[in-house]
Design goal:
alpha+beta; GMP Synthetase, Chain A, domain 3; SH3 type barrels; 5-stranded antiparallel β-sheet; 3-stranded mixed β-sheet; 3 helices; 8 strands; elongated
Length: 154
């Protein structure tokens, strides 16, 4: 039996090819469940945002590639989605891209006696994220960020 990580790696290759053809970028690939009842979740992204048309285009392209390569034994359900409004911030470039947006950050070390911050991304200076919290600025070194995601704003 092929390991889940080998399957995920092969699916990542195919999803990368499908997203390049569709003109979007691959955000993440997840395999959920067990053999025979697996869900293959592919998240896609681009600067303009993701709509149903982009998801359909990637889904059709990826289905064709998966049919040919057949990396997943048994049945599975393919879901193509966007990262969502509360998307994870996975690298310093994401913080740069979403300057001005509300975010939630958890750090591995204390800054001003706390490890959890909710505020607006004001700027990025090298590897330092400048957060605006209640009319004060907090500088957070990216290397101590353990989790980060955008907040949904209404």
């Amino acid at each position: 039996m092929v390991s889940r990580e080998i399957i995920r790696k092969k699916v990542m290759e195919l999803a990368t090819e499908a997203t390049e053809i569709a003109g979007v970028e691959l955000f993440d690939v997840g395999l959920i469940g067990r053999r025979g009842k697996m869900i293959l979740r592919v998240a896609i992204d681009n600067e303009q945002g993701i709509g149903i048309k982009e998801c359909e285009r990637v889904s059709r392209q990826l289905e064709a590639l998966l049919d040919v390569e057949d990396p997943i034994q048994g049945t599975y359900t393919l879901e193509v989605t966007s990262p969502g409004l509360d998307r994870p911030l996975r690298n310093i470039e994401d913080f740069e891209r979403f300057k001005g947006r509300q975010a939630r950050v958890v750090t591995t070390e204390r800054i001003d006696n706390q490890t959890f911050f909710t505020g607006r991304i004001k700027s990025v200076k090298g590897d330092i994220i400048v957060f605006e919290l209640d009319n004060k600025e907090v500088e957070i070194p990216y290397k101590i960020v353990s989790k980060a995601r955008l907040e949904i704003e209404f």
